[in-house]
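Lab meeting notes turned into a lecture example. A postdoc, R.K., suggested we walk through two folding results consecutively so the class can see how the record format repeats. The first protein's sequence and structure tokens come next.
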Amino acid sequence: MLHTSRAIVLRTIKYKDSTIIAQMYTATDGRASFAVRIPRTARTRLRSSLVVPLAMLEVDWKDARGKGLAHVVSARPYYIYTGLEYSPVKMAVAMFISEMLTASLRAGVADERLYQFLDTSLRWLDVTEGSCANYHIVFLLHLTEYLGFRPNTDDYTPGSSFNLRDGRFVPLATDDCLPAADSAYIPQLMRMRYATAERIHFSRDQRARILDCIIRYYGLHIPAFPQLKSPAVLAALFD
């Protein structure tokens, strides 16, 4: 049976000389892995460009019928990045987002709201001409709403600490809590949108520390969360 869906590429893995495995988040089926054949022809370069991380595609595939991975019959971009691939900073942010989504999204039932959130967020990163220094932090905090562990900010009071394990604010800090100074940013960032995120001016050390806390939060709520490589690159980008 032939299926068609919009899909966002999370990552690709070389399988054979002419085949890659592409992990994608699809609008109709959620996260899924596909075998994509890249023939050795003059068109190979074009075909390969369709399955780069965070590519936004319309994909046709056939069921595996219990015999391995589903096979992509054809793929074509439904959105072509115009600014992201020409900006080293945006590319670094995109690679981090790709790594985080690969670590966070699990196979299962599709979520149309989540797909729309990802689509809209990536388009914004592509076209913005403003600062994206805080984009990835705001992205991760808003993503928690779709993953089921959105921080509860209802109990926030000045001086309280955010408990990473419980996802809420508490009056007395424990080992699983952020310091009160860092905790105070969480409600503020949760109210931010990408276009307004630059209003918060972090130092490089502050931004890296906040990001590390958010990654720790993900690690406590997502089983088998891996060690990430890309945050070190981001830490060197923004002053």
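The second example is placed directly after the first for contrast:
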Amino acid sequence: MADSQIDAQHRLAHVYRAARQFDEAIRWFEITVEESTAIYGRSHPQTLRYRSSLANCYYAAGHTDLAIGMFLELYGARLAVLGEEHPDTMRSRGSLANALESAGRYREAEELHRRNVGDREDALGPEHPSTEASRRNLERAAGRRNLHG
């Protein structure tokens, strides 16, 4: 299968997701993950990108527990393949933190957001939009933890 065909399927999945047709989006994201895994392997950066889209779609569709497991696995894979300071690793950590927060696991979410703030400040600077977004996520998670205990 050509890379361009997998990319086209991935874009189609995003169209379904944007239209909130999650079942179709998930089906197409799963196809892209399966085909990319067959070509490149499970931990190739391109496959990791497709796996991330699938996990985010499950999260958007309200399958939080499933998404948490996928985000946890994806974060570990990106950490091993790309390293702690790679933007995709930080993005996976942030996605995992957001899903944990949605599940009421505020302390875990807050710690992951705190690590993202520190790593993004080091890698991108304190005023970078991604650093500022991580800081807002940390403040939200800390506020929810204080509110809910």
